[in-house]
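Bumping with the actual sequence this time:
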Amino acid sequence: MPTATLGFRRLYDALGVGTSAVGEIHHKVTLFEGKTVSVYLGPKPPLGIVCVESDQYMIPGRSCVVTSVNGEYKASAFLEITIGAAKDITEQQVKLLERHDKDTREDLLRQASGNIESAEYLLDVVSGVLGLRFHKQIVLKPLIENCFITGDFEPAASFIGPVVEALENVEANQNTAPHLQRLLDGMTSVPEGLLLKGGATLHWLLRAWRERDAVAKFMYLFVPLEAILQSNNELAVDSLAALESLEELVKNSGAANKVDFLYFLTIAKTRFGPTLSSRFEDFARRKAISGWELDVQAFKKFNRMRNLLLHAGRKKVCSHIDFEGNSRTLEDLVERYVSIALLGSLDVYQSTWRPKRG
């Protein structure tokens, strides 16, 4: 029975890497469940040279390149990494693929894309190992990621294009000039130290606004909140209650090492500061803006996602949560509460993308 290889590939411009002395380097190894890793370094990657480019923003009234495929990209060397697995196919499927049958090709590409998440982890580990042990420049500039099928027929591929952010028409009116003047005038009475501290906080909000990668944007948004919700040495209320309950249980127990347990709990009271979620909840409760209770619920979910990213290596994030008709986004929460903390106002820019608050 004929077979096809279904897989996922990542192509890099191997920046500054020369291979003229050794020519092409091409290695293959087989991992678990028959998955084959192929690494190619040289001027002619086996699956071809493709670079997907786009504009960063889609601005109303202006032309925008959403996706541009550049097959003429030039580089001294490319790094191509593929993760593939063999799949039995029928003679009829081979004939259809030879005739460039769209339905057959799309069906197999869909099957290849079904394992994208695990393939991305494998691509990351291979890329990371090569970057760590050979040179980081080899993996600094990814050009494309795509699913592919190969076999005794012309290879076929599909790809995921870059993210393009759709912007809005923002019209200045007769109120704009005095509004900007009031904002600037308000800064004149702020001490230098507070201005610099505010700049250090807003630096990360600016980075988050510019970031195109969803995971990096998600992580950046937490930094300004960490800055305005700085921790102190006071124990979180929920942690204190739990430790006091444990202390009471130990006191009333017959444990032989009761004294050691009680000493540990005494020390623990000085070590467990309030969590980011509890600090946000305290801040939101004190400001008590409309809908703050849902803000707290949403933030706890967002913070759990961040903890899974940091401590469990998860890659999936969701920055939008619905509560029976009311929505919360991480970006909106950060913007509102940073504005409250730094500017003393919950007023933020108006946007059609901002969720409605119930």
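The tokens above came from a reply further down the thread. The mean pLDDT is 85.
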